[in-house]
Design goal:
This protein is an alpha+beta fold and 398 residues long. It has helices at residues 3-28, 32-35, 40-71, 74-97, 100-103, 140-146, 231-237, 251-260, 297-303, 384-390; strands spanning 112-113, 125-131, 134-139, 148-153, 156-163, 168-173, 175-176, 179-180, 183-189, 192-197, 203-205, 211-213, 222-223, 227-230, 242-244, 282-288, 291-296, 305-310, 313-319, 326-330, 332-333, 336-337, 340-342, 349-351, 357-358, 364-366, 375-376, 379-383, 395-396. The chain folds into 3 domains: 3-98; 112-260, no CATH class; 267-396, 3-layer Sandwich (Rieske Iron-sulfur Protein). It has a 5-stranded mixed β-sheet. A 4-stranded antiparallel β-sheet has the order 4-5-6-13.
Length: 398
């Protein structure tokens, strides 16, 4: 092999070993410069072919490396050794140490207990779901590490997801084209987790359940209604609920995640009287009547109850006394539109028109409308940058 050819073969091999993994890191890890590009075709190609390309690159590097070690002096040998170690080390770090599939694993054993055996703090924020009168709650402090928890109620499987970068929790039915899927986390786009199904390798946005690229392109996972609340509030409403317990194999990672952020709404910095919205403001986002709208968390903390109109529908956004649990309901009852506030004690939710008392299930338990039920609206708590990235025409409440 001639020297020039040998040289180019070595450098081509090094590029094939390193470059695809570098592209995956740049486009699929939370690097600001790469998060706005959305070069999914390139990222998908590199993600799926990087191991084969690395093998080809390694084969191209072997003969030139042997030649250098045989025919050149120690200085070039040392330089070659350092370069090879860098290439191999980078590939290992990118695909083993920094691989989201290795960093964020689902529970080895999913354990759920009722409150008499529960070990989770009652002040913990949870994502809750109710199906067939069976309630289950998943602590966000656990979900922030796992990102994905697969579970079922009455033989209906569902996927509880949480993105720790944007604070978005979603629950989906893991079925596409009548095919049941399982998922892993493989990266981020717009600082939101990308999920990959194990069956076809299709990528999906965690925020919306929409497919990005792959065999199920232009598909949509069916979202299931969920709520975010403190565990104490959740158990007051659903005392027979099952609660996810810590996975013994993951407890060290729960500690690691908690050191970064405790995911506690009460820890959110209080804002001043500023008008502008910051990227990392927490918001409550809803989409109703074809319109998306966002409410700053600190505005909700200050007001506790926000009566608003979205499209042609009247809604109320309400924050419980624990300052963690929030709800959104449509407020039309029997053709009448109700406005809401707190009573004189500041602890009970009442409608302005009749002073009837409503509980946190949206049901009237005292007064003129006793027994009536407000219609719940799916609502999410997350960062403003995440909400507006996936709801570009969102309206801001001011």
């Amino acid at each position: 092999m001639k020297t020039a050819t040998s040289k180019w073969a070595f450098w081509l091999g090094a590029a094939l070993l390193v470059l695809p993994s570098f592209i995956c890191i740049f486009l699929l890890m939370p690097i600001p410069a790469g998060q706005g590009l959305e070069w999914f075709e390139l990222a998908y190609f590199c993600h799926n072919w990087k191991y084969l390309l690395a093998l080809i690159g390694l084969l191209l590097m072997i003969m030139p490396a042997i030649k250098i070690f045989k025919n050149f002096r120690w200085l070039k040998r040392i330089g070659l050794a350092i370069l090879c170690l860098f290439c191999f080390g980078f590939f290992y770090a990118a695909n083993v140490l920094m691989n989201p599939k290795n960093m964020f694993k689902q529970p080895e054993k999913l354990l759920l207990k009722k409150q008499d055996e529960n070990k989770v703090s009652l002040s913990t924020s949870v994502i809750g779901i109710v199906k067939n009168e069976i309630a289950k709650a998943y602590p966000i402090s656990f979900l922030a590490y796992h990102h994905i928890v697969m579970d079922s109620i009455a033989n209906q499987s569902f996927l509880v997801t949480y993105c720790s970068l944007c604070r978005s929790g979603r629950v989906f039915e893991p079925i596409a084209n009548e095919r049941k899927l399982s998922f892993t986390t493989i990266g981020v786009s717009k600082f939101n987790a990308i999920l990959e199904d194990d069956q076809t390798g299709t990528w999906w946005h965690q925020e919306t359940g929409e497919s990005i690229i792959g065999a199920f392109e232009k598909q949509q996972l069916n979202e299931l209604f969920s709520e975010q609340a403190s565990l104490r509030s959740w158990l007051q409403r659903y005392p027979e609920s099952f609660i996810m317990q810590p996975d013994s194999a993951s407890e060290q990672f729960y500690t690691w995640v908690a050191e970064i952020d405790n995911f506690d709404p009460l820890s959110m910095p209080k804002m001043s009287s500023r008008v502008e919205w910051n990227e990392n403001d927490w918001v409550v986002g809803i989409e109703l009547d074809g319109i998306a709208k966002a409410y700053r968390w600190n505005d909700l903390l200050a007001k506790r109850v926000i009566n608003d109109v979205i499209g042609n529908l009247q809604v109320v956004v309400a924050l419980e006394n624990d300052l963690i649990s929030f709800h959104v309901w449509q407020t039309e009852i029997g053709g009448k539109i109700l406005d809401f506030t707190f009573d004189s004690t500041g602890t009970k939710l009442v409608d302005v028109q009749s002073q009837s008392v409503w509980n946190w299930n949206g049901q009237c338990n005292e007064g003129q409308y006793i027994g009536k039920q407000l219609k719940p609206v799916q609502a999410y708590q997350e960062f403003w940058h995440s909400w507006k990235s996936f709801h570009s025409h969102t309206v801001q409440y001011n």
